[in-house]
Design goal:
It is a single chain. By secondary structure, the protein is of the alpha+beta class. It has a 25-stranded antiparallel β-sheet that branches. A hairpin with a 4-residue loop joins strand 21 and strand 22. The mean pLDDT is 83.
Amino acid sequence: MKPRRRWIAVLLVVAVLLLALTLAVRFLLPVDRFVMAALDDLRARSGAELAVGDARVDLWPTPRVVLTGVAAHGSGAALDELGVTATSVAAWTLTVKSVTARPDWRELVGRRAVLRDVRLDQPRLEWTAADGGAANLAQAAAATIAPMPGLLRVRVERAGWHGVELSADAELAGWPGPGRLQGEWRLEACDTGVLFAALPRRPVLGATPVAGLAGEKVEAEGRFDWPWPLPAPLRFRDLAPGLTGQAEVSDLAVTFAGSADPWTVSAQADLQAGRLEVRDAVIGIGDGRVTGRLTLAGLDRDALQYSFEANCEDIVLPALLRVLAPDATAFVDGTTDAQVRGSFAGGPPGTAATGLALEAVIEARDGVVQARDWLTGVAPYLGERQDLQDIRYRSLTGSLVLHDGRLATEDLKLEGPDTDWRGRGWLALAGPLDLSLVVKLPAGFRPDLGSMSQFADLLKGDDGRIALGLRLTGRTAAPVVNLELGASGRQAAWR
């Protein structure tokens, strides 16, 4: 026989043997019984309903059992029986396109089901919370489970939840009993718009709420180390102590309710021991920007504590106030530089933040303070110059301190084309005020002081301009304005 024919004959014999082996494995090994035994065992242990569309044995590239059309559903109690504490779950449904199991064949021939590893392709989990909330959905490209005595290894590839895709490698030490779940996680993709729509909202001190996020330049990775079983009900504050991570976001567009102009945000963040540090933050607001840092402490508790530091450069005040303090937007215009630091507390979800405290040094320019509502008591003195109640300024500087809802200053200075001002005192954001002001009126302008008009020249300062001392008391919304002659003229202590 020629060598070529000999090789063809050998290949035919090998092919026949492989076909025979495949048929023998397909029809002689108790795959169906193995699958049914495994399903019966899971039903008995968990009370969950399980179903399999088809079961087969594949030999290539490695021998394995393949299940298709796998489905399971049950209650939170069923998860408890499987060692997953989930008392906050009312019902759940798991569907898997295919499950590939590599059993120990020697054990399988002996009718014992011992697995080397299991791969789930396109698992999809839906669950409903016990409190009657909306249904939740999580899905992944694949998950691989490798059980060993005292150890369970799990790899999850691109698990998705509301626009976030995560991959993770984990080990459960002590399996199947209590132990620790440890591993690494990494962010594969993030649709910030979809994620934002799913997150709960927290009102913050009357600020304009965020309407949307847009941006995909988000990177993150970290580690986790948690006791197993996880506590019930499962809350983020219970997971925070064992969760670490680093993240970076670039050019995230943040839009606010009622505004078409987004802020752009770039920052880096570190999470450790229930504390989030946001650093190297850059926020673009129009042509200006804010740089600084933010710390969130207490992620492992119900109450959060925020602290921040910020430097503002070329910020148009209405654009800033429209978001942070909408009620103040109508009262001031201009462009400002500022250095700010402060803190505030946040309560449980759904409650407003409280206890805002801050210190700020501001240097504003080229704007207007719409003080007409506050200075109505000055109107009789201004005669035909009622326009002076709206204070135009070239520069506005001062140090501000906000504590317990009270804003105080000792060195307010405002200089403009019409009037110059100095001020000190305090005002409550929703209550009384006590402000002492000195205003230098325009050169050549004589206020209408009624019966005291003849003494107006006595109120001129060293530069020949009349300086009036004013004191504002009463309520912030409608203060009482009194003329203080002792703080007028050369006694104005002008600085």
